[in-house]
Amino acid sequence: MSVSLAVEQLTCRSDCKTKDNVTVCVVTAVQYRIVKDMVKVAVFDIASPHAQIRAEVDNVLRSTLPTMTLDESYEAKEKMVAEILEAVKAAMAQYGYEMINVLITDIQPEQSVLNAMNEINASRRQREAAFEKGEAEKLLKIKASEADAEAKRLAGVGMANMRAAMAQGFQDSMKFMKDSGMNEQEAMHMMIMTQYLDTLKEFAGSHGSIVVPHAPAAIQEPSPTGSQMV
């Protein structure tokens, strides 16, 4: 009868229930080997070493998991591994089995719970995506409003500068005409007449406008018309 002294691995599947009443299947890998000096004990003193190891693994998990929620069990893998390794070492050492390592490779909730978890995660991601989209749209609206406000401000500044320049031009023209010997009334008359003729010129230059000029008598006294125009 040949006995292998190499390291072997035993996979255990333990059905347990968590603190929040979720049924899970915990998959555990136990790595072990037979101690060379205890081959006889390992072969003849224990009938089913695999069953004994599985029993120890089940015992630890079924006493530990009911104290944890499903989420907590995922976080407590290292703690459970240490407890399982300690238990199987104590139980199997006397039979010539050395426990090398223990790994919890999976914690599988029942399918209905797994589906619910996936739906919850999907819903959370959708909410996060909707929130991010809303924040992006809000930021775009804010930037657009700021740009519009800045454009209006600049337009207002331009209009104010234009009006200031026009006012300064009128003031300079009035001063020049008064300095040339005109009285205030004559200077005003000349300014209004000039503005009136410039306006007629602009209308005449437009292809879509029909200009009906005043009679010659009206041009002699344009002040009332000019006043109405202003």
TrEMBL record:
A Pfam match: Band_7
Domain (Band): residue spans on this chain: 5-138
Source organism, top-level taxon: Eukaryota
InterPro entries: Band7/mec-2_domain, Band_7, Band_7/SPFH_dom_sf
Gene3D superfamilies hit by this protein: Band 7 domain (3.30.479.30)
PANTHER family membership: STOMATIN-LIKE PROTEIN 2, MITOCHONDRIAL
Record's protein name: HIR1 protein
Organism, scientific name: Symbiodinium pilosum
